[in-house]
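User: Show me an example of a complex going from sequences to structure tokens.

Assistant: Sure. Here are the input components:
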Amino acid sequence: MSDLKYKYFLRIADNAMILGQRLSEWCGHGPILEQDMALTNIALDQIGEARLLYQLISELFPEKGDEDKIAFTRDISAYYNCLLVEQPNGNFADTIARQYLFDSFNFHFHQALQNVDDQRIKEIGAKCLKEVTYHRRWSSEWIKRLALGTEVSHQKLQDAINKIWKYANECITPDALDNEAHANCLGPDINQVSSIVSEERAQLLDSVGITVPENTWFLSGGKTGSHSEYMGYVLAEMQYMQRAYPDMQW
Amino acid sequence: MNDNYKNWPLWEVFIRSKAGIAHKHVGSLHAADAEMAIENARDVYTRRQEGESIWVVESSNITASNPEESESLYEPAKDKVYRHPTFYDLPDEVKHM
């Protein structure tokens, strides 16, 4: 049970942490000031959720160290985020496609998290659900705008969706850990989340004339620690300070 | 191709800091339409809990008084002190006057 809890909470935390790290790369590079701030606001929300979860993990498993140690000193195979969130920012349409696919999952995941038994994860989930609700609104609005904007923006979004689609379904496909967590009332039933998310994604993309790729196969592995080539670079940048100057504070 | 072709329109943002108080002008921003203007205003102007309600209006829809006419518009009020409610005692319960 304790190993289950450790890994399962890390999975939620790492999704938030790595997406937050990716989004923070946009800081100062957003297409306009307002969207630069929107992107970094979302990055901060994600990192905020990751912090709450790492603090909880550190409290439950003191032998793992404090939140910084958990966030910044694990090796790549000890991260359990899905492959989707570690994919590069690409252009703005790539970032929006990645964000929407994740938000559509994340929103329903957090909603379902309200029905689990574990009080602590439920409380963190409730706080973050409000933030995630806004993220989903923001990224769905951008899906519509890019799709219905100009020919160029439509094409860029279509290309982005085609490119990222193979990573879209890992988060909504339950594996052994998801099932065990659900059986122990620690996590939601991912099968249930999955059908809502798939339908919602298809409906939105279809309504704005974006073709959902036909391939149903997808890449997975991040959830169990087998990451894509990009993850090493994300961690190298994210962990540099703690690796170079262990236990440093500022 | 003029500037307006590429730039999103400008919007004026009004924020109400809490229920019962009037919306107050806080600044402006660019957005493609009203919905995006609300979202941008939320991200730019309410990050530090500045408010709980947002109005946006496209700047071009605002009609402003002409600064050159300020003499005729505002100066006549200068010597009419009796229009200020300073001759009344306000009850302590009345806020925001």
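The lines above are the inputs; the final block is the predicted structure for all two components together. The domain at 3-62 of chain B is CATH 3.10.20.520 (Ubiquitin-like (UB roll)).
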